[in-house]
Amino acid sequence: MTILFFLLLLPVLALGFTGLTLMFLDVLHLGSRSRAEWARDALAFFFGFLALAGLVWDIASGELFRTESFTMFLGIYGMNFVLLGIAFVLLALPHTGAKRQE
Which of 16, 37, 39, 57 is the most buried (most CB within 10 A)? Predict the structure, then answer.
């Protein structure tokens, strides 16, 4: 059962790190933005960092090997998934600042 849970976490970690990195680069390429947009993006990256750091910490501390059911899996990692989802939703909101020149 633990191997299954670990296999469920690997794509989340890979997509989380890759997605946040690509969105961070996209944010850097946007032109001038308001302070509210900067604050929203900073909050989103902070939530994403907390979520991914929490996932890595739980895996490194061996918390994954104590899970015996899917309910325990969601209890341990559920909040990290929620934080990662909030980060992606905040970053996906449209920016009202200057549009990118292409």
Answer: 16
